[in-house]
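Researcher: Checking consistency across runs. Here is Molecular chaperone GroEL again:
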Amino acid sequence: FDRGYISPQFVTNAEKLIVEFENARILITDQKISTIKEIVPLLEKTTQLRAPLVIIAEDLSGEALATLVVNKLRG
């Protein structure tokens, strides 16, 4: 895991170019995530808890990445 942010859209502090969260839930996996259905249960739970989710994965791409970026842009 030596890649950093997979998309600049996830930066929460544009001045410092960092991501800052309080009480975040963290998903760490050595798997590649490419479809949103792979993480829907976790997304639903963190939404219900109103908790941010930090994903550390081998790769995040395709539909999963696109959906997460759109959701971030929508707030």
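Researcher: Does this match what you'd expect to see?
Model: One thing to look at in this run: The helical segments are 40-49, 62-74.
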